[in-house]
Automatic annotation (TrEMBL):
SUPFAM superfamilies: ATPase domain of HSP90 chaperone/DNA topoisomerase II/histidine kinase, Homodimeric domain of signal transducing histidine kinase. The chain crosses the membrane at residues 168-191. Its EC number is 2.7.13.3. This is histidine kinase. Pfam families: HATPase_c. It catalyses: ATP + protein L-histidine = ADP + protein N-phospho-L-histidine. InterPro entries: HATPase_C_sf, HATPase_dom, His_kinase_dom, HisK_dim/P_dom, HisK_dim/P_sf, Sig_transdc_His_kin-like_C, TCS_sensor_his_kinase. It is found in: Membrane. PANTHER family: SENSOR HISTIDINE KINASE TRCS, SENSOR HISTIDINE KINASE YKOH. It comes from Celeribacter neptunius.
């Protein structure tokens, strides 16, 4: 259950609790009904006991007999389930339903008129509910102390209890289903704030919101408050780290410029090889510094930044087509107007500039630049594609090319793609390289769409 759904655990726990509660209620109701039926049976036996006592009189033989028989037909049907018995000394009068059996009354001392209730064994294996009373007959009947008992088969009580239970079971099942449905609705409503928290966390991650807010129920609000506090602390840490990186990068620019000056002086003195080595090392370091400055700038970028993809690409092509390699290529552009990404135009230019320069350098003749909104597959995302018809890169080398500092040939440091990837990830997007249908290389830069355009 540790990794299961919280909703499922609550539903299962509620279902078990409801089932146990209904079962206990069913048992309790059946017990109460049984006690009620037994009281009713005891009251009925008492009435019948009065009738038997009232029916005692002198018979035709001059002996005590039951001259008025109770009207219930079960008294006359052998083992019919309802019995009476009158005991006076050794003389025992009994109903026809007892046939040749007797009610085994216990040895019991009853005061005159006292009544006891017993559960005794009866004929044919029956269990009897017995009402017994001790009476003193009037003088004309001999004045003897007599024990009068009326009994009924407890099976009738069990049948009434079972019938009551079977009648209740369908309603109990229906009640369980209704309560479980109500519990599921209650859980769904109760967990809705947690779903809202998940949605707002996703909004914060995608950049459409800055904080979760406080408009949550009292029980959930502390969680949202702590998450917002954590976001604030993390943002402050990131800002401080980016500021330190930016300060460090700015601090290195002056010493690097000085090293370039030293390389120039070495070149003037004829030490060309040493000067080239220094310039190569300093060039690599400057690219690293520029990369850190770019990342620091992106970290401070506002959430409402936006850049028109068509305008940025048009500006880049005006520059690249003036270069030797760019001027020899055919540039096909398919970008709709008004397509805006959530990025600063300078950051988008830097990321696309690297990809367009690579395409111009390796294309044979033609480069295609296109962009479209991915509303069907990735809502809120815009994909920019730059494809050339060059020799391409084997698929097993693409992953290695994307590693920090890797390069496809000996020209450059390999930081161009890394910087473009860093910009894409910092803006909440991705950069993926793949092969075109004609064997060339295609770069797919996916960035979040801008929420505000102007």
């Amino acid at each position: 259950m540790r990794g299961s759904s919280l909703r499922l655990r609550l539903v299962l726990a509620g279902a078990v609790a409801i089932s146990i509660a209904i079962a206990a209620a069913l048992l309790g109701l059946t017990t109460l009904f049984t006690a009620h039926v037994e009281r009713q049976a005891t009251d009925a036996l008492t009435v019948q006991l009065d009738q038997v006592i009232a029916g005692l009189d002198l018979g035709e033989t001059g002996e005590v007999a039951l001259t008025t028989i109770p009207t219930d037909p079960r008294f006359t049907r052998p083992y019919g389930g309802l019995y009476w018995q009158v005991s006076e000394g050794e003389t025992v009068l009994r109903s026809r339903s007892l046939w040749d059996a007797t009610i085994p009354l216990p040895v019991d001392e009853l005061a005159d008129g006292a009544e006891h209730i017993h559960t005794l064994d009866g004929p044919e294996g029956q269990t009897l509910l017995v009402a017994e009373r001790s009476v003193t007959l009037p003088a004309r009947l001999g004045g003897a102390r007599t024990r009068v008992a009326v009994a009924m088969d407890r099976a009738a009580l069990a049948e009434a209890r079972n019938a009551f239970l079977f009648d209740l079971i369908p309603y109990a099942i229906l009640l369980i289903l209704v309560l479980n449905l109500a519990g599921w609705v209650q859980i769904a409503v109760g967990l809705r704030p947690l779903r809202e928290i998940g949605s707002r966390v996703a909004a914060v991650r995608s950049g459409t919101a800055e904080r979760l807010g406080e408009d949550f129920p009292t029980e959930v609000r502390p969680l949202a408050t702590e998450v917002d506090a954590l976001l604030t602390a993390r943002e402050a840490d990131v800002v401080r780290a980016r500021m330190r990186a930016g300060d460090l990068a700015h601090g290195l620019k002056t010493p690097l410029q000085a090293l370039f000056g030293e390389a120039q002086r070495l070149r003037e003195t004829g030490r060309t090889e040493a000067a080239e080595h220094i310039e190569e090392i300093v060039g690599n370091m400057r690219r690293h510094v520029d990369r850190e400055l770019t990342r620091a700038r992106i970290a401070h970028q506002g959430r409402d930044a936006h850049a028109d993809v068509a305008l940025v690409v048009a500006g880049l092509l005006r520059v690249i087509t003036r270069t030797h390699e760019g001027g020899l290529r055919q540039w096909d552009v398919a970008i709709p107007d008004g397509l805006n990404v959530a990025a600063d135009p300078a950051d988008l230019s830097e990321a696309l500039g690297t990809l367009i320069e690579n395409a111009a350098r390796h294309a044979k003749r033609r480069v295609l630049i296109s962009a479209e909104a991915q509303d069907a597959t990735q809502p809120g995302q815009i994909e920019i594609r730059i494809a050339d018809d060059g020799p391409g890169i084997p698929e097993d080398q693409i992953a290695a090319l994307m590693q920090r500092g890797a390069r496809e040939d000996t020209r450059g440091t390999g930081l161009g793609l890394t910087i473009a990837t860093d910009i894409a990830e910092a803006l909440g997007g991705t950069l993926v390289l793949g092969a075109t249908s004609d064997g060339g290389l295609e770069a797919r830069l996916t960035l979040p769409a801008a929420h505000r355009t102007s």
